[in-house]
Design a protein that fits this description.
Blueprint (H helix, E strand, L loop, with lengths): L1 H13 L1 H24 L4 H14 L4 E4 L4 E4 H4 L5 H28 L14
Antiparallel strand pairs: 1-2
Helix pairs in contact: 1-2, 2-3
Length: about 120
């Protein structure tokens, strides 16, 4: 959630079409706690609202305890992940997304343009 918050803050400084892409990137980070909440049998909307609020007011270590359904300080709970693991996951996901976009561009460029319409009353 903290990464999503910071990327979304950055998006407001960009503007234009790039802002939309950066906001979508921020939203992709939110899929992680949303999926955890869903898999834990919690209400994902409530969890997402709680996490956003906690990250705005209480700091960057807030996360969801799927056993209790509460937003807690993960540092105090002892739930930590190595930075290298996070960096690798983000880098890999970004590379895959870029590759998919490049492939989509190649496919779009390979399609022939649509044929112009024939004269009125002419059946194709």
């Amino acid at each position: 959630m903290e990464l999503a918050k910071r990327v979304r803050d950055y998006a407001t400084k960009i503007g234009g079409r790039e802002q939309l892409a950066v906001e979508a990137f921020a939203e992709s980070f939110e899929s992680i706690p949303r999926t955890l909440a869903e898999n834990g049998g919690l209400h994902p909307i409530d969890i997402m609202v709680g996490l956003r609020s906690a990250h705005e007011s209480r700091g960057l270590w807030n996360g969801v305890n799927v056993h209790t359904g509460k937003i807690v300080d993960m540092m105090e709970e002892g739930v930590l992940e190595p930075v290298k693991v996070k960096e690798h996951a983000i880098r890999s996901a970004s590379e895959v997304a870029s590759m998919i976009l490049r492939i989509d561009d190649v496919i779009a460029a390979a399609k022939p343009p649509p044929a112009p319409p024939g004269p009125p009353g002419h059946a194709d």
